[in-house]
Amino acid sequence: MKIIALNGSPHGVKSTTKVLVDAVLAGAADEGAEVDYIDVCQLLINYCQGCGTCNRTGVCPQKDDFWALFAKMQEADGIVLASPVYIDLVTAQLKTVIDRMAHPIHCMLLSGTYGCSVSTAGASMANEVVEYMNNFLSLTGVRIVGGIGVTMSEGPRVFEEKITEARHLGVRIVAAIAEQQVFPEQEAAFAKQAAKMRELVDMNRDLWIAEYKYWQQKG
Ligand SMILES: Cc1cc2nc3c(=O)[nH]c(=O)nc-3n(C[C@H](O)[C@H](O)[C@H](O)COP(=O)(O)O)c2cc1C
Description:
The chain is of the alpha/beta class. It has helices at 16-30, 53-57, 66-75, 92-99, 102-106, 126-139, 156-178, 184-203, 209-217, and strands at 2-7, 34-39, 78-84, 114-121, 143-151. It has one domain (2-217): Flavodoxin domain (Rossmann fold, 3-Layer(aba) Sandwich). It contains nine helices and five strands. It has a five-stranded parallel beta sheet, with helices on both faces. Helix 1 packs parallel to helix 7. The structure holds flavin mononucleotide (FMN).
């Protein structure tokens, strides 16, 4: 079982958010998962140009690290998404990755994968950013097992508690994958989202040829 984590903090090994990610991965590794940490800021990920080529062909024409990263996400059984709060949202580096996901979202290409998110903030919005990242994962079809947001101004004791929670989250994602747990509310949301995407792709079928073919093949 493979769990990968993507952290959008530019702080490298000094990232506070990484402390949470490491705890999730440690919890998962203790349960026997193979884990991989990806520092998004070390990758070359260009901005989405909004050209629509991915919708049309299924491939982005930009030569950068995006598709290798996405291949890792597709191969993984579990994905941990992480970012510090930057002006009430994820960092620009992680948002740039997310913006490249129009095609994976239209086709819900990560269906069957499990995920969770973690975030740290100086003062506020950590939980909202966790919700944002988890919502993004859901749009690609990922089943969400939880999330942890930490406000650093709450002090080191709270942070320690959250680190412990993060370890448990790592254990939980492994259990969810091992048992292929299904969450009825999320399944209902996926069905709705798939219907919405099929309708959108159908409306654009002359342009979004690859996506139309994809949904056709899905029946
Ligand atoms: C450019 C910038 C924007 C930030 N915006 C916010 C914010 O809107 N709200 C907040 O509570 N903290 C904000 N912070 C603080 C970070 O979220 C906080 O220090 C976080 O723990 C850093 O995590 P990292 O070390 O993993 O990057 C900001 C920090 C920077 C550098």
